[in-house]
Design a protein that fits this description.
Blueprint lengths: L5 E7 L3 E2 L13 E8 L9 E7 L7 E10 L14 E3 L7 E3 L4 E3 L3 E2 L7 E8 L18 E3 L6 E5 L13 E2 L2 E2 L1 E8 L4 E7 L1 H4 L11 H9 L3 E7 L5 H14 L4 E7 L2 H6 L4 H17 L3 E5 L12 H16 L9 E3 L1 H5 E2 L2 E5 L13 H7 L11
Parallel strand pairs: 16-17, 16-18, 18-19, 19-20
Antiparallel strand pairs: 1-15, 2-11, 3-10, 3-12, 4-8, 4-9, 4-15, 5-6, 5-7, 5-10, 11-14, 12-13, 21-22
Length: about 375
Amino acid sequence: MNTEKKILTTWACSQYLTEEFNLPSVPLFNNSIRQIIRTSIGANKTEKIRIKLSNKCGDVPLQINGASIAISDSQGSGKIKINTTKKITFNNKDSISIPAGEEVYSDFFDFYFEPLTELSITLFYGSRCFSTDKKEEEQKLLITGHPGSRTNTFFEEGNALEKEQFSSENKVAHWYTIAAIEIMTDKERNVIVCFGDSITDGRGSTDDKQDRWTDHLATLGKGNFAVINQGIGGTCVGYHGIRRFQDDVLNQKGISHIIMLYGINDIIYMNSKADVVIDVYKKLIIKARENNLKIYGCTILPFGNFGDYTEEKNSIREEVNYWIRNTSASQGGFDEIIDFEKLTADKNNKKLLATPFDCSDGLHPSANGYKQMATAFNDLTIFL
């Protein structure tokens, strides 16, 4: 029996600079925020967990004066099960200063939760720091986070780490600072990283309902494997994907599999030809194999009712999908094919998303569409 301790990620999100229109509705500094995430694998009473916080995009140190974790009481409420509250420490201290451009881990601590549990992380921020090489009126607030959270974040004045219920008066559907939750364990469980753009990030899903296609996959897994969503809306595989593959995919703890749904933005916005997108796929497949990882490719969904649709762009999408379906692993293709196009296309016109699966913009699936996509995973043994 292998009792060697290993670290596995149960939840994570890709970190990037929060755009001005996605900044917090109230100041972070000297205030508390409560953020809700859903785990994939659970942690039993013999295991320990830790959290990762990020100031990756900041240009000055970020002061965290306190942090706590608890089991969320109900979806979208900002309320916690108060008797589950646990203080989080950093090098045995309540506070931590996160240097500009860096990420930090908390200490490992005991915290038991079942698979697919919603957890609440509450952070109490310190005073705002300013860059010394700029005048105060030139300062910009550079907050690292993940705006496409699909869950609401709640704000309270001052130190509210132990408060049971946060007000819903100030809330936004964005994450700030939190980057990952990891488990120290002696169990063997695989970690699947879902890598892509807004369709992986979950645009068109329902806030606070955890109904992205990645969430449905985690639900199907029942805690037997971890599912990590590393999608960022608006990104292209040929630019952003290449640049963030190391941090957002390969650096995830315990990773064993990659599911990649990427390339539609390259076709729509970058006017990339099929061979350009396919060449990027080949490069990422090679990197995955160099790290002894399985990499599964997803066909690109139809977009015929989207405003930027053209017949030429659709033919490029079809050419890319043909390569995905018909190139074996031994020929440099993916290890498995997830055929999302087949499941979501209109039966009478395969250039379109079927109406029940369309969020109404012709490009992104609806909540029903994401549920339909998850029917692709009828054989979970490919992840075990």
